[in-house]
Amino acid sequence: MTNNNRDFLHSLWDFFCSLKLTMSLLIGLAAISIIGTIIPQGSLPPEYVQQISPAKLKLYTSLGFFDMYHSWWFILLLYLLTVNLVACSIKRLPHIWKTINEPVTVFGSGLEKSLSGVVSLSSSEKSALLKDRVAAFLKAEFAEPVVTEVDGDWHMFAQKTRWCRLAVYCVHLSVIIIFIGAIIGSAFGFKGFVNIMEGETISKVMSRSNEEIDLGYSLRCEQFSVAFYPSGAPKEFKSILTVLENGKPVPDYTNARVIVNDPLTYKGITFYQSSYGNAGNYYFTVTDLNGKNPVALTVAGQSSVNLPDGSSLHVVEATKDVSQFAPGMSGPAAQVELHAPNGKKESFVVYANHPELNIQHAQQHGTGPVIHYKGAQERMYTGLQVAKDPGVEIVWLGCLLMVIGIYAAFFMSHRRIWVRIQNGIVTIGGNASKNQAGFQLFLDGLTAKLATHISEEKKP
Amino acid sequence: MTSSLLFNVATFGYLISMLLFFAFLASRKTVLGSAGMFAAYGGLLAQTFALALRWKESYSMGIGRAPLTNLYESVVFFAWTIVLIYAILDIKYKYRVIGAFVMPFAMLGMAWAQLGMNNSIEPLVPALQSNWLVYHVITCFLGYAAFAVACGISIMYLIKASHEERGEGNSSGMMAAFPPIKVLDNLNYQSIMIGFPLLTIGIITGAAWANYAWGTYWSWDPKETWSLIVWFVYAAFLHARITKGWVGKRAAWLSIIGFAATIFCYLGVNLFLSGLHSYGGGK
Ligand code: HEM
Known about the structure:
Chain A contains 12 helices and 21 strands. By secondary structure, chain A is of the alpha+beta class. Chain A has 4 domains: 3-93; 103-161 and 413-455, Alpha-D-phosphohexomutase, C-terminal domain (TATA-Binding Protein, 2-Layer Sandwich), CATH 3.30.310; 177-279 and 382-402, Tick-borne Encephalitis virus Glycoprotein, domain 1 (Sandwich); 281-377, no CATH class. The longest helix of chain A has 30 residues, at 72-101. By secondary structure, chain B is mainly α. The radius of gyration of chain B is 20 Å and the shape is flat. Protoporphyrin IX containing FE sits between chains A (19, 22, 25, 81, 84-85, 88, 92, 168, 171-172, 175, 406, 409) and B (235, 238-239, 241-242).
């Protein structure tokens, strides 16, 4: 390998190990993520396409702005973050590992200078006795020390919660684990959708990318219902579902209740209550302005039907009892939309129990036919979101690790105390990986206690 | 006694507390600082009772849910958490004067909620009927509140630091009431050390709820994305402290930017971005 090459690799390694890169990536990701919250993502609403200029539309499309969180440059930033994370850890871990597992047990003068708040006590007792007493004291008040003799002097080292120095790596590892879970989920899972009529059975669902996915079993919708609060606001959407294997109901999955916030999972695939509708028939009678020549008319679900005069009609909404919306009236009513052949569009309500209102409306609006509502045969369907995500457990594992790691990184501290006994002088110093000020207070208290301890035991 | 009345008492308490802290800043009379803290504690107590009472009221109306589910309730809860976090810092560190930069957040929140919002208790739509809502909202708002406190402290840091740079170090007047910049820097870090884990748990509980209710733990909707933006900014703050050239003023700015992003995540997303998503609806 040439020198140049080595230099290049070296600076590349340094680049990936640098915390300045970390800062740039974190702030850069924060700033860039804003784009996708301002520009619509996924399938664009037609209103948006109309208001934006074609040149801009083309530019944004080619930059991937309309699906930016899956664009190559956003993913690249995430990969860079991962590489940065791994490189930083590789660079620092050996040093941390040494701090944890090969501590400095001798309290030399170099170490002493690096510590602040070192205190010395004097005692007339013999070194060996003093050593035992101080060691016992440390064991009782802090942690059992390692005792070493060097040139007739005694050195002690005691420490607590050394493992918490690894907490930061636990947090960083958790980020990578979450990424792995997300990648597994997008590679081996799917998100889809299915509508099931009451009484019908399906075995395939449609994925977001419009592919048919075979469930490997069947699902029947027994019933769908909506409950309302007295104010008319929806209270509960409920589907009753049955899972079938080879056409036979599965015992524990028969007539299972699925509501919003309470899905059904079978063989790794989960079904979520998402939408609903009525695909049943609506019945009408159409007459002349003077009530002659009645013609029966059936409208199926959301579809449109042509009237004798060439206009088309579809149902926007219908109710069995209009009195909750219009006090003083009764019976079924439907809101219909009428498209005249000349392109005119109007929306109005027709009633079953109030034919005079239907006639009145038609008279006010020209010559058109009179429309009477007769009622509906309800046939509800339920709309279910379908998802399979084999990576989700890994993501939760990563999250758990992250929370534990952050807790340990912030609120636990590796505390170390060194003691040297030399010619009747006891020197004490120490430090902590977090909250040094708090530790210093603790150490001052400990030293004061040791001072009285030494002088007391000497008396008898 | 109704919860609404007690909320007014709390608002008033926070207002008095804020004014006392301002007077403390101007006069440096310790008794004013203590009185300000006393008013803040009084307001906190009144608001705690008010929250419990509103919860109980919802049960007697037959609705029965935690008071955390609409804009009014969230603003009120936010104000409560800000004062709570401030009280914790006060008990631990006793730097009263920070109240002058923290209580205004709580006071403004309460005043806005009490004067400008509809406070009726309404039943929950199906999408919100879940216990995850409670865990999610509580952790997120405790996190937000810690960031609000950190933001107030960072503003103090910047004021004090620029004062010292101009050579007015051994200051008299208002600056003497400020803690030393080293202490402010540390308090900023301490607050974010409270806020960051809470925000992390808040995002995770939100993801868990989304996964439980819709089958996707992450769908990059504007609210989720903004919470991640906030998280990135504070992760940057945490690393700033160990990066050369990023300590001090820059870190304080990061904390302020982080709180601005937090407020946008909380209010801006609903006020501006959802509007963008209903293209041309009203026009
Ligand atoms: C590019 C990615 C990242 C790199 C290179 C990186 C690097 C580092 C380094 C070198 C440290 C100091 C460790 C020590 O004290 O020995 C650290 C601390 C830390 N990192 Fe990261 N980090 C990255 C991303 C993240 C992310 C995404 C999080 C999100 C939670 C995070 C959370 C933390 C925490 C909580 C600390 C401890 C900070 C403290 O004790 O004040 N890091 N990071």
